[in-house]
Amino acid sequence: MQRVEKRPAAGRSPRSRGAAGNRKVLTGGRRARATTDPAERKARNRTILALGLLAAINVYVFGLRDGGGLGQLGQLGSASIAGTNSPLPPLASPPDEACGGDPVRIFEGLSDLIGLQTHLGPGYTVRLGLLQLGIASDEIDRVEADVRTHVDLSLLGGSGAPLRLAMDRFGTIHALELELAEGHILQACRKDVDGHTFDVRNIQHPLRTDVEVVALELGPDADLAHAVLEAGEKPELAHQIARTLANDVDFLTEARPGDKIAIMVEKRWLGRRFHRYGQVMAARFQGAAGRASYYRYKPEGGPPAYFDGDGKPVRRALLRSPVAFFGVDVEARGLLPPSIELVQGRIGAVYRLPEGTPLVALGDGVIEAQDRSASEGHTLELRFEDGTRARYAHVMRVVGELSPGTRVAQGQIIALAGHSGRTANDRLRLELLRSDHDGPPTPMDPLLLLGRDSERPPVVGAAIDGKAKDRFTDDIATWTRALKLAR
After folding, report:
1. What's the pLDDT tens digit per position in 84-116?
2. Closest Cα to residue 352, out of 420, 425, 450?
3. CB 422 within 8 A of CB 374
4. Pairing state of beta strands 377-384 and 388-398?
5. Which pLDDT band holds residue 61 (cuts at 50, 70, 90)?
6. Quick one: which of 20, 14, 23 has its CA closest to 6?
């Protein structure tokens, strides 16, 4: 490109041209500025301000935005964590080593991976169970090739055996556990990240189940995972507490320093070694987000469920968040609260999340559709039993065989957050709609999930009353005392 150098016009120096541009004149032997009418000056300033604002909006819309509309102007951009220049780091990366060396706890050291579980119910083999969890066929072939040398897989079909695994965000299994019988465990862990073989072990020890009360208080970092470790417990207990209290507290965005938690939880032992946590029998929370009491109880003629101290069900039609609990740097927690985004007239909540963050079904329901588009990427639509519909956009991938009509349970991991579609950041965009039988779906405020009192989604289930309530009160009396003493 030819460079053109601008030169002053002939007969005029740069200095004289600047003097003329400043409109300075001589008046009565003194130099003074030309006066301007105040109204004219205000109008000119308003014009300059408007043009500047318009330019800024154009720069944002056409050059800087990450897939959102103007409703996203107030959102945070890419943020640094712990002094680095990278955005939120991805979750569930392949570990350097899957076999941690613990003789019983196959998942020791793998708490950053994605934990999934199912049961080999009627008609379900190990292969079908893994397919249901979204594991690819070639990955299943590698697991079965090593596991079948220790057990006849054909005998496990329909046995009801619990199947648990830890996988990375790409769907690779790093540890697997089959509970063949009480005290009899079959475990497999990947030998190395790039390897296709597993170390398999068959464990049989006497099974013992204790019930223990654990008291926690969140420290200055308001980190539930840190509080659990400080109490001498295992990392997975933080995930279990967050799942149990998910109807009342989102520990990623609502936890505050000084929040107190007391839980009564089963601890399962194989011989003298701790194996894993069982059911949370009771829990109490007292903190900035409110107060809640949970008691796991089986009313006569009904399935086990959680009730408060008055025998009222605590489960809501929708959870407080579609995001499963995960470990996050305390400096990054400010990025996690959702913000409102308006795109083409559709309102949604944007959750800024690391790639691979597990996303859960807000309620019991069915899969309506899966789709892909250039703008929203991989999307997943659900219809819940209360008539609400939810649309998850920009997901990395779904978890499990989620074809239209597939039933999902509240809290079930259904997808992983990502950046599919037209967005520069890893995130989830959530839309909620109310589906009426006699009309098209109507948009809902997605932040109603974080409402309080009467604004909250409705309670699901029947209360315990009459003579059954008296028995309930008597049965939980010792639990209540134990929770109070622990705190």
Report:
1. 334 689 999 999 889 988 999 999 999 999 999
2. 425
3. yes
4. antiparallel
5. very low
6. 14
Q: 208-315+461-486, which class in CATH?
A: alpha beta
Determine contact, residues 134/114, Cβ cutoff 8 Å. Answer: no
Q: Residue 244: its pLDDT value, please?
A: 97
Instruction: Compute, in degrees rounded to 10, the torsion defined by CA atoms 476, 478, 480, 485.
Output: -170
In this predicted structure, what is the pLDDT of residue 41?
54
Alpha-carbon gap, residue 189 to 174, rounded angstroms: 6
Looking at residue 435, its pLDDT comes to 74
Asked, colleague to colleague, whether 114-204 and 208-315+461-486 share their fold, the answer is: yes
Tell which residue, 416, 424, 429, 422, has the closest CA to residue 355. 416
Write down the domain spans for the chain: 114-204, 208-315+461-486, 330-455
Closest CA to 393 of 409, 424, 371, 360: 371
Please state the φ and ψ torsions of residue 371, each to the nearest 5 degrees. Answer: -155, 170
Amino acid in position 42:
K
One-letter amino acid at 116 equals L
Q: What contacts 126, CB < 8 A, 6 or more positions away?
A: 120, 144, 147, 153, 156, 157, 163, 178
Task: Give the lowest-confidence range in 7-16, 220-229, 447-456, 459-468.
Answer: 7-16
Architecture of domain 330-455: Distorted Sandwich (2.70)
Among candidate residues 216, 309, 227, the one with its CA nearest the CA of residue 265: 216
Pick the CATH number of 114-204 from 3.40.630.10, 3.40.190.10, 3.10.450.350, 3.40.367.20: 3.10.450.350
Torsion of CA 303, 304, 305, 308, to 10 degrees: 120
What Rg value do the Cα atoms of the chain yield, rounded? Answer: 30
- Residue 387: the pLDDT is 87
Q: Round to whole Å and give the CA distance between 457 and 452.
A: 9
How far does Cα 487 stand from its chain's mean position? 29
Residue pointed to by tokens 């959680």: 306
First to last CA, the chain: 76
Q: How confident is the model at residue 67 (pLDDT cuts 50, 70, 90)?
A: very low
CA distance 270 to 250: 33
For residues 226 and 303, what is the distance between their CA atoms, to the nearest angstrom? 34
